[in-house]
Amino acid sequence: MYLFTALFFFILGGGAALLMRTQLAVANNRLLSPEVYNQIFTMHGTTMVFFVMMPALLGISVYIIPLMIGANDMAFPRLNAFSLWITLLGGLLLYFSFAAGGAPDAGWFNYAPLNQFYYSFTKGIDYYAMGLLLGGIGSVSTAINLIVTILTMRIKGMHLTQLPLFAWMGLVNSFLIIGAFPALNAALCMLLLDRQLHAHFFNNSGGSALLWQHLFWMFGHPEVYILILPAFGVYSEVFQVFSGKRIYGYGFVAGSTVAIALLSFGVWVHHMFATGLGNTVNTFFAASSMLIGIPTGIKIFNWIGTMYGGSIRFTVPMMFAIAFLIEFTIGGLSGIGFSIVPIDWELTDSYFVVAHLHYVFIGGSLFGLFAALFYWFPRMSGRMLDEKLGKWFFWIFVTGFNMTFFIQHFLGLMGMPRRVYTYPDIPGYTILNFISTAGAFLMAAAVLLLLYNIYISIKKGTPAGTDPWDAFTLEWYPPSTHPGKNFDELPEVHSRQPLLDLKKASVNQ
Amino acid sequence: MQNKLMMKLAIGSEAIFFLAFILGYLHFWDQGNFQLQASTQLSASKSALYTGLLILSSVTFIVAEKTFNERKYNRSLWWMLCTILLGVIFLGGQGIEYYELIQHNISLSTGVFGTAFFALTGFHGLHVIIGLIIMIYLCWLIKYDYPGKQNSTIISTAGIYWHFVDIVWICVFTTIYLLPFLI
């Protein structure tokens, strides 16, 4: 259900993105008015972050993690259902704003004072605040549920040091959610008080626009790690299984995740270098932002080390994982660039930022989701996703992705600001924008192919059997068509690769 | 075990929510001249009295929990009702304070001080109300449903929440009422 919710909003958000790129395909375009364009980019960002990535990643977590740790269900099944429905309600509320006079139009981070009622007088922002508040409550309750499940319901013999890495990421990630979302919820409450009861948190008669930015990014920066950590977990599993090797440096992968989680609460001001907080503050946050690159870099080497000398099988999940290594490194390096204050001043709010964030969101999180989809689809449906169609999908999508966003680095360096609904015919702008738009349509075509693949594979895909990938972890232990609870009987666990041990043991007998 | 862990995580999340509002309050400190506002408009001594009562309600809750575990259900019920009463008195005190402030023309929409003050204390008050609803439900459970069902963690879980509301208020009280005299 979570995953269907995510898919539904993914199509909506993707449609918004296509509209934007169409508008920007040629100079001086008049397809969309500036007002509509504002609404569309706001809805695209908000939808993709809060109602696609969050429910998709959490959905996979609540499906797979109980299976991985040998639990029959989440600790609080009803709370789990509550989280889903309240998130869906939040998303629908956000979209209802179109019917109520206009969607939110102040960008996904909704800066003050643009979010105040005399700058944005449709009901859009109120719906934004309510929708996100409900979505936030859903995410926090899922996170609490996951932590309790992982800490108290592990199978006999499975210590925390034997937890599969995906579950490790889920655990750390849940703590991040619990720490980060309240800041957003508080900011949203203040915003609602401002808009509905004329309070003075963020308006210009006494209020402070900076306070919104501080609170939003106190949430917002951990949020980008919230979106990437589960994907890291997926890659850690995929690299192990398809390299036929155990993870290289288990302790380092888990430990660096904890380091990322802690550091992520100390870097938010790097979104605000341009607000003039002074040299001391800027230097501190520049240093912490560079620091957070280190644990991420450690992981990249762990994964390369896992592949090194392994017998690699190039299945679709593995291809997405390898593509991730390359794309995410590009996104990461441009990110490190931003932590250098003068570079940030030069490039902030340009298309360079757009390129950077799409490289980490798509090249990091979305590729992780695709890898997870292809990897766990047999577990969920009992059938394999068609590998041949999957490979076509992979190549078309990756080509389209690089066409769209690599170009935008150059556009940003040339000085094109983000969030403009059109641009004059400056040399180079039109051709680069046109290529970017063509890439976006290529990605859309790839996604259609994926949808077709899912449909056809559910109808008549190859039956998967119990353990189609020759995997290491417990989620492949019970047969995938098993109804009701997850496990009838449980083996004891003595290592990090329980299923592998069991298979070896049965060969030896 | 699971319930308590869940509640601890939930209040961890809530703590950060309140932290954001306290930080918001401090953010406006200089700009809104809170030092003067808080020391002239608010009465620290009256509020200290209500603070004392709220702390007392945590004590009565502990007694209620203890007597419940000793299976003295009637006494437990009585102490629980005391806790509710203290909570209601606290809310009443807050109501009187709000009324006086509005009489002096300070409300949520009149200025930064009103905004920050009413939002912070208001959200705390909301949590007190939720706590009271939970405790009324607990009373009903103790009276009608509980005798016979042992080993339930619902009272101690609710207790974690109630003590948390109490601790938050101590932080809020320190920030709003005491800080103007300390610096």
Number of domains of chain B: 1
Largest interface: A-B, 33 and 31 residues
Average pLDDT level of chain A = 81
Q: What percentage of residues of chain B falls in helices of 4 or more residues? A: over 70%
> Which secondary-structure class do the elements of chain A indicate?
mainly alpha
Strand content of chain B: under 5%
Per DSSP E runs of 2 or more residues, the count of β-strands of chain B stands at 0
| Assembly classification | heterodimer
Output the number of helix runs of chain B.
Answer: 6
- Reported CATH architecture of chain A: Up-down Bundle
Short description:
The complex is a heterodimer of chains A (509) and B (183). With 509 residues, chain A is mainly alpha-helical. Chain A has 14 helices and no strands.
List the helices and strands and how they pair.
The complex is a heterodimer of chains A (509) and B (183).
Chain A (H helix, E strand, L loop, with lengths): L1 H22 L10 H35 L8 H20 L27 H29 L12 H33 L11 H35 L6 H15 L14 H29 L8 H23 L2 H7 L3 H31 L5 H28 L14 H32 L37 H11 L1
Helix pairs in contact in A: 1-2, 1-13, 2-3, 2-4, 2-6, 2-11, 3-4, 4-5, 5-6, 5-7, 6-7, 6-11, 7-8, 8-9, 9-11, 9-12, 11-12, 12-13
Chain B lengths: L1 H26 L6 H8 L2 H26 L3 H31 L8 H34 L8 H29 L1
Helix pairs in contact in B: 1-5, 1-6, 2-6, 3-4, 3-6, 4-5, 5-6
Characterization of this structure:
The complex is a heterodimer of chains A (509) and B (183). Chain A has 14 helices and no strands. Chain A is mostly helical. Chain A has one domain: Cytochrome C Oxidase, Chain A (Up-down Bundle), CATH 1.20.210.10. In chain A, helix 5 (165-197) packs parallel to helix 7 (250-264). The mean pLDDT of chain A is 81. Chain B is built from six helices and no strands. Chain B is mostly helical. Chain B has helices spanning 2-27, 34-41, 44-69, 73-103, 112-145, 154-182. Chain B is elongated. In chain B, 84% of the residues lie in helices and 0% in strands. At the A-B interface, helix 4, helix 5 and helix 6 of A face helix 1 and helix 5 of B.
